[in-house]
Amino acid sequence: MDIERLTKHLSLDSQQINQFTQLEQRYNRLMDDLFGFEGDRKQMWKAMRELLKEKDQEITKLLSDSQTKSYFNLKQLQSQQRKQAN
Predict the structure, then answer these.
(1) pLDDT for position 66
(2) pLDDT truncated to tens, each residue of the chain (86 aa)?
(3) What is the Cα–Cα distance from 85 to 29, expressed in whole angstroms?
(4) CB-side neighbour CA atoms (13 Å) of 4
(5) What is the rounded distance in angstroms from the CA atom of residue 46 to the CA atom of residue 41?
(6) Which pLDDT belongs to residue 3?
(7) Closest residue by Cα to residue 23 from 50, 74, 72, 57
(8) How many whole angstroms separate alpha carbon 77 and alpha carbon 47?
C-alpha cells in the first residue's frame, strides 16, 4: 500500500511513518523471497496469504483504533476497485 496515501488517509505521525516504512520494507523482502520459491505454487500462495495477514496484524499494532478502522476500510475500498477493474 502506498505510504503517502496512508499518511494522508490515516493522519500518521512521523514515528508511525518511520515504523510503517520499516514494516513495508521487511515484508516486501519476505514476499520477494516467497516469489523466488521454486516448489509448490499452491503452498507459496498459502504462505503469501498468511504473510499478508501477519503484516496486517503488525500494522494494527502501530495504529490507534480509529486509524486501524480507517486502514481496513481503505483496504476494502481498494479491493473493491480492483475487482471492478477486472
Answers:
(1) 93
(2) 677 888 888 888 889 989 989 999 999 888 888 877 777 778 888 888 999 999 999 999 999 999 999 999 998 998 898 888 87
(3) 28
(4) 0
(5) 9
(6) 76
(7) 57
(8) 24
Distance CA 58, CA 54 (A): 6
**Nearest-angstrom CA–CA distance, 71 and 9:** 8
Interior angle at CA 74, CA 68 and CA 78, nearest 5:
145
Q: How far apart (Å, rounded) are the C-alpha atoms in residues 37 and 31?
A: 10
Q: Of 29, 2, 27, 17, which is closest to residue 63 (Cα–Cα)?
A: 17
Q: How far is CA 46 from the centre of its chain?
A: 16
Distance CA 27, CA 55 (A): 7
Side-chain half-sphere exposure of 73, counting CA atoms within 13 A = 8
SS3 content of the chain, % helix, strand, coil (to 5): 85, 0, 15
